[in-house]
Amino acid sequence: MSSSLAIFSGLGPLEFAALVILGIMLYGKNLPAVARTLGRTIGEFRKQMKSVEEQVRREAFQEELRQARDEEDRKEREEIERLEKRRALQPPSAPVKPMEPAGAPPAPAAPPPPVAAGGSPPAPAAVEPPAAGPAGPPSPLP
User: Measured between alpha carbons, how far is 68 from 57 in angstroms, rounded to an integer?
Assistant: First the structure.
């Protein structure tokens, strides 16, 4: 049964006929205009109800989004605080060495110093500081 006739579902044929006769007696020639106005009013009421329902749904959705964002922000703050506490409890470490890019071959290690015939490595050569010369950039080494 359609929703527009749902209000008449509890009425029997005699009750319905009585309502039609009563309407004719009260409104007479104006009954079609009254029915038209009543139909428009009911249609407008339904349209407004749908609008209100949609607005309530929209606001509920916005509230859910806000709560989800707040929860994510709270979790992020907690994680940051946890990491900062963990960092504060660790002893200071040596300077961090930059990481090699992924897939790059490891840097070659420095070759070991040559061993002299006596079994000990040779002493490092002494480097002399450059002589003081005219002002300007130092000259390249020969």
Answer: 17
